[in-house]
Design a protein that fits this description.
100 residues; mainly alpha; 5 helices; 2 strands; globular
């Protein structure tokens, strides 16, 4: 997927590199628990797929504040990708064990 931010087109793809960058930036294992986690991860998707990027995190947040459509598009992308990735997640909870 491509998205236009400040008159520049950026590629957005769900990649392993984005997870590595997230962990390098935050110093923690990837887990999308907070709003900050979500926005940092979206920024990591930009960094991972656009090595020439000049957009800082603060500039990125400013764009999201000002351009609601950009935020909406990115959140829809994240939702769809997380749904796709969910099929690879094994449920190890007690409820799942009881079903077997």
């Amino acid at each position: 997927m491509n998205i236009r931010i400040n008159d520049t087109d950026y590629c957005i793809k769900w990649t392993l590199r984005a997870f590595f960058i997230y962990e390098q930036i935050t110093g923690k294992i990837f887990k999308m628990q907070t709003l900050t986690d979500e926005y940092v991860f979206i920024y990591c998707l930009l960094l991972a797929n656009n090595p020439e990027i000049q957009l800082t995190f603060n500039e990125f947040i400013d764009v999201l504040d000002e351009e609601v459509e950009v935020l909406k598009t990115l959140k829809e992308f994240i939702g769809k990708e997380m749904a796709k990735q969910a099929i690879f997640t094994v449920d190890t909870t007690e409820d799942a064990k009881k079903k077997n």
